[in-house]
């Protein structure tokens, strides 16, 4: 087994500079050490390899055949090490695959309009988007970044906030024409309230009832596993649904949906975060540039 205290790349660097600088003294000046230190290192290298690498003379340094071969291979190896470190750090050219786990709503209304700009900025990066509203294990799903709504629990995940979005209750004009516009909690209870097929932070809707605010449970005849499906159900006239405002902005402008129960006392908002595994610090550049890009262009506020 090789000794663990031998710094092979360090020896190669010194030997390469001895050759390229033309001698021990010049290499010593390059590394800011004494000539004897360089001479001793090369001597130890030759002893370990069991062969002479250089023929020393008072005028110049001459490489043996073995020394020439070792020099050429050392140059290639050191270049490979430098390239490996550059790729790992992605100092000037981030590259690789980024897997983003996000809700269909965020993917459709926020990511879709901006991802082409990101890909133009970083031609060495590819992006795979996995859409689900369910909270996933980033490690198990091999996701680099997840976009999540709601308050972040304490965990090993690090979060980058992407803003807060108001939650609004909406319905289609057709549905409201047939079933009436609810203005109180008791009226809301008579409507079909579309819900998510999993537990969410906000399990009830807030609605006024006189001078008080009442929490009305989401209890309808139709639910779905993602907000985009519920949005389309609402546009189709299936009932009322509470969604992040940024997902229905265009529908409200076009008149496909209208807001109901928009009382200042019942307004809620929901934070969005880009989360990733780790404690900051040594993030791959491909992840770091995506997080920076989302913080600037992927906000929901």
Terminal CA distance:
59 Å
Assign the structural class, choosing from mainly alpha, mainly beta, alpha/beta, alpha+beta, or little secondary structure.
alpha/beta
Query: Which spans have pLDDT < 50 for at least 5 consecutive residues?
Result: none
Radius of gyration: 32 Å
Coarse shape: rod-shaped
- Estimate percent helicity: 40-55%
Strand content: 15-25%
Please count the beta strands (DSSP E, at least 2 residues each): 13
- Give the mean pLDDT: 86
User: How would you spell out the order of helices and strands?
Assistant: HHHEEHEHEEEHHEEEEHEHEEH
Q: The biggest beta sheet, please?
A: 7 strands, mixed
Please, how many helices? Answer: 10
Tell me about this structure.
By secondary structure, this protein is of the alpha/beta class. The protein has ten helices and 13 strands. Strands 3, 4, 5, 6, 11, 12 and 13 form a seven-stranded mixed sheet that branches. Strands 1-2 form a two-stranded antiparallel sheet. Helix 2 crosses helix 3. The longest helix is centred in the N-terminal third of the chain and has 25 residues, at 65-89. The radius of gyration is 32 Å and the shape is rod-shaped. The relative contact order is 0.14. The mean pLDDT is 86.
